[in-house]
User: What shape does this take?
Amino acid sequence: MAVRNPLGPAVHAHPLTDGLEALLGHTFLRPDLLRQALTHRSAVQGRARRGHSNERLEFVGDRVLGLVVAEWLAERFPDEAEGKLGPRLAHLVSQPVLAQVAEDIGLAAALDVSPGEAKAGVKRRATVLADALEAAIGALYLDGGLDKASAFIRRAWEPAMQGQTVPPRNPKSSLQEWALGHGLPLPSYALAAREGPPHAPRFVITATVAGANATGTGSAGSKQAAEQAAAADLLNQLDV
Assistant: This one.
């Protein structure tokens, strides 16, 4: 059964949503929901009704994704304690994994961004892809229900789940160990931006290690999760 959309007025459908519907495994009764999920906030700046961006759907999708992956992990690793399931969950819902799934399903091509942001390559930014994917999950849940959202998540995340032979390490701990092992100062984290509406904030955090010629960036709904994402991004740049 479809779920009523409580997130605001409808927006018009987009020709690229047809292919995305096939990838999501659902034909939308309210295609405006999917279109809204694909609308970056830059595309609605200056409009009278700003609620058409994907930020509110992202808020919903983040929670749906966490629930589905947590249930899946509990099924897949029935004998593991919460202390090991937690890092697995954090990894699977992290920005790098979300961005990779978004790339795999071709989400970038369907995103609606402002012309200026399009020229700047915003469609390929991990933060933008991750946010849009969460919004698409939110739209799928609201239109098709939890079963539809769960079916898509389990298909799209199967490669990442299969790669979880052992619990992943905490990115912040790993970055700290790397810094100490190279005789460098401890990592530092800074708040670069606070985005989104008050009810669904998005924190952008940068991670640096003095002496390492790189800066990690992470975005999440909490500062702690954003720091983890930033640490993971920096570790990836350092090939750790």
Remarks:
- Confidence is low (pLDDT under 50) at residues 1-6, 8-13.
